[in-house]
Design a protein that fits this description.
The structure holds 2 protein chains of 2 kinds.
Chain A: E1 6-17, E2 20-31, E3 35-39, H1 46-54, E4 61-66, E5 69-71, H2 75-78, E6 82-85, H3 97-107, H4 112-125, H5 141-153, E7 159-163, H6 171-186, E8 190-195, H7 198-203, E9 206-211, E10 214-219, H8 221-226, E11 231-237, H9 240-247, E12 253-259, E13 262-267, H10 273-284, E14 288-293, H11 297-313
Parallel strand pairs in A: 3-8, 3-9, 6-7, 7-8
Antiparallel strand pairs in A: 1-2, 1-4, 4-5, 9-10, 11-13, 11-14, 12-13
Chain B: H1 3-19, H2 21-41, E1 49-55, H3 60-71, E2 75-80, H4 84-92, E3 98-102, H5 106-112, E4 119-122, H6 127-137, H7 167-198, H8 200-204, H9 211-241, H10 249-273, H11 277-294, H12 306-314, H13 316-329, H14 338-358
Parallel strand pairs in B: 1-2, 1-3
Antiparallel strand pairs in B: 3-4
């Protein structure tokens, strides 16, 4: 079922906590050397899925194959070949940068002669050489995250799982961090990254949008945006609050978001928004200019999660 | 099991310990404080009771008796009174706790044995002083006077291993066990839970580390710490309380080593049963209490009901107390005390097996 070019292959993956299905019959295929993104709100099942793929959680149902290994059966073998960067900083805050890396090298069975130059190289690459003797707990958010990445790639894993790696850092650090991820992808590493930042999701080579434990859309960011079922409109007005109030229950409107002084409207594919909006605005006596605009990833995300919310409301 | 991975965990634990100043201070601080507190405070024997003397006879025999009573150490003879009126006064004022009264016809009474020859008037407002008076009352007045002689009732009191009846001699060996129990269980109980609480465990179980490497690696540094604590108590016990050591030193360390491991495995089990550091602390205290009460540290084992004795047999401290008292005070050898050592070994095996089986490399 999985070829040598497949890094992750999961079918019908399910995890139930009591009656709640945190992950619900999820199918996933990640090819090698991809930077695969998991985009989804909190509680959509991103972390749970990643933990199951690493072998840290046993699935309630479904099949997983990672790097050709059956999970959870071969989880211990897999652990030598993957790197897992947890959402929360999980290195030892009371050890120094150097001690943390030395510990991880030993734990991953990296021989001392290999580990020493490798640690030096990583410290240099992730700009931590000066912090080598500093306690990890005293590092800044961006430094901690770079240290965590260094610790995760120390043993040169084939596959990296990164669970919301940038949730605790500033935009500048986020940008640099993603450059490092592409560097790793260029070297042949497959990456699975979860995020809730649109700009980060847009940089992935492929993307799955998760909602309520299911993948509600997947493809390359371009495919997702081009395939958006619906239209996006920009409504420019001096009275955005009033216009939003007038339009929010117009049939066919999926979502309206205020961007500065204008409104961004996501409308259903059936059309008729322009005419409907004009009529509403005339009745309310509001002035606004409506014109079509190209879809972005946020529109895709909103459309996909709105659809799944609708499905959830329908009686089973 | 990889020795390198095991060693890396040991080194990590030691480094973390070195930076945790409070815990580091506790390693030496706890045994020192407990020893001093328990050693001086748990003392059911009263010593140096302030006592005045009214020797109305003032003969050679009366003076000899007074001197001998003073030599017991129970009383500290101070003021000499001259009249019976003073007896009431000094007691009421709290100047002394007891007065030794020898009547003018002391020698005659001693010969005839018809009336008490000595009267001890005590301040009855304190229970311990009454107890001390009873102790004095058993002083052999007749026949040849010494400490371990036949008394009027025909009961011979021979206190072989603690002739001076000093409480620290009984308390200090037990304290070795008590202190090791308290610190070892607590330290390891927190060890694994702390990794879980701080999120380190999720990172750690995603690596090739095995449950055995993790558990043994966490226990090993504390074995060393336990031996340091044992040494602290032994040295201070000798310096402060002059507690005798009649057995072979290395044999005591063997017993201590097995006992320390027993407590560490118990602590590890606690660690696998709890989710937070607070829970781990609570459970440690919960396990600590029966050890104090039932092990024979506070109350004699022989005096306990049978059901309590069964419980006591399961507690590691019970067996260690037998070992440490045997070796230190009675000069027994470890081969003579093998059942206790075997019981401790069995405890280690069972606890460690359960603990390791509970260290999953999974989050659920």
């Amino acid at each position: 079922m999985a070829s040598a070019e497949t890094a992750i292959h999961a079918r019908g993956l399910t995890k139930r906590f009591g009656t709640l299905a945190a992950v619900d019959r999820l199918d996933l295929t990640v090819r090698r050397r991809e930077v695969y993104g998991f985009l989804g709100p909190n509680g959509s099942g991103k972390s749970t899925t990643i933990r199951m793929l690493c072998g840290l959680l046993a699935p309630s149902a479904g099949e997983i194959e990672v790097l050709g290994l059956r999970i959870p059966r071969d989880a211990e073998m897999l652990k030598r070949r993957i790197g897992y960067m947890t959402q929360k900083f999980s290195l030892y805050e009371d050890l120094t940068v150097g001690e943390n890396l030395a510990f991880l090298a030993a734990v991953h069975d990296v021989p001392g002669a290999v580990a020493r130059p490798r640690i030096a190289e990583l410290l240099e690459r992730y700009r931590l050489t000066k912090q080598r003797k500093q306690l990890a707990g005293t590092l800044s958010g961006g430094q901690k995250q770079r240290l965590a990445l260094a610790g995760t790639v120390l043993h040169k894993p084939d596959l990296l799982f990164l669970d919301e790696p940038t949730s605790a850092v500033d935009p500048q650090s986020r940008r640099e961090f993603w450059d490092s991820l592409f560097e790793l992808a260029d070297e042949g590493t497959t990456l699975l990254v979860s995020t809730h930042y649109m700009d980060e999701a847009e940089r992935c080579t492929r993307l799955a949008i998760l909602d309520h434990g299911r993948i509600v859309a997947d493809g390359t960011p371009r495919e997702l945006m081009d395939g958006l079922p619906g239209a996006t409109w920009l409504v420019e007005t001096d009275e955005p609050r009033q216009v939003q109030a007038a339009l929010h229950d117009l049939p066919g409107v999926i979502a309206i978001a205020q961007i500065g002084a204008s409104l961004r409207v996501l409308a259903a594919p059936e059309g008729g928004f322009e005419q409907g909006a004009a009529a509403r605005l005339a009745t309310a006596g509001l002035m606004a200019a409506v014109h079509a605009t190209g879809p972005n990833l946020e529109d895709v995300f909103v459309a996909a999660t709105a659809k799944s919310a609708e499905r959830a409301r329908e009686p089973a | 099991m990889s020795l390198r991975r095991l060693a890396s965990i040991v080194v990590k634990e030691l480094r973390q310990l070195r930076r945790d100043r409070l815990t580091f201070a506790m390693i030496i601080g706890v045994p020192t404080m407990q020893l001093v507190l328990f050693g001086y405070a748990i003392n059911s024997d009263v010593r140096n009771l302030e006592t005045a003397v009214l020797d109305q006879a003032n003969t050679a025999r009366s003076r000899e008796l007074v001197a001998q009573m003073g030599a017991t150490g129970v009383v500290a003879l101070g003021r000499r009174l001259v009249s019976t009126a003073e007896v009431d006064a000094v007691l009421r004022a709290g100047e002394v706790s007891a007065v030794l009264v020898l009547p003018p016809d002391f020698d005659t009474r001693l010969e005839r044995r018809d009336r008490p020859a000595v009267q001890i008037v005590v301040d009855g407002s304190e229970q311990v002083i009454q107890a001390a008076a009873r102790q004095l009352a058993s002083f052999p007045l007749y026949e040849n006077r010494g400490w371990t002689q036949r008394q009027g009732s025909g009961i011979e009191v021979v206190n072989l291993y603690n002739p001076e009846r000093r409480a620290p001699v009984n308390t200090v060996p037990g304290l070795v066990g008590l202190i090791v129990t308290m610190t070892m269980v607590m330290f390891t109980a927190l060890a694994l839970v702390r990794e879980r609480e701080r999120g380190n465990l999720e990172m750690l179980i995603a690596t090739p580390v095995s449950p055995w490497e993790l558990t043994i690696g966490k226990i090993l540094p504390f074995v060393g710490i336990g031996l340091v604590q044992t040494t602290v108590v032994l040295v201070l016990g000798d310096l402060l309380f002059d507690v005798p050591f009649r057995g072979v030193l290395w044999q005591l360390y063997v017993a201590a080593l097995v006992f320390i491991t027993a407590n560490l495995s118990l602590g590890l089990l606690v660690s696998t049963l709890t989710r937070t550091q607070f829970q781990a602390m609570q459970l440690s205290f919960f396990l600590f209490l029966p050890q104090i009460l039932l092990s024979g540290f506070m109350f004699p084992y022989a005096g306990m009901p049978v059901a309590a004795q069964y419980v006591a047999e399961v507690l590691p401290l019970t067996h260690f107390l037998r070992l440490v008292r045997g070796i230190m005070l009675r000069g027994a050898t470890i081969t003579e005390l093998w059942p206790s050592l075997a019981a401790l070994g069995a405890f280690v095996a069972v606890m460690l097996a359960i603990a390791v089986s509970r260290v999953h490399k999974r989050l659920d």
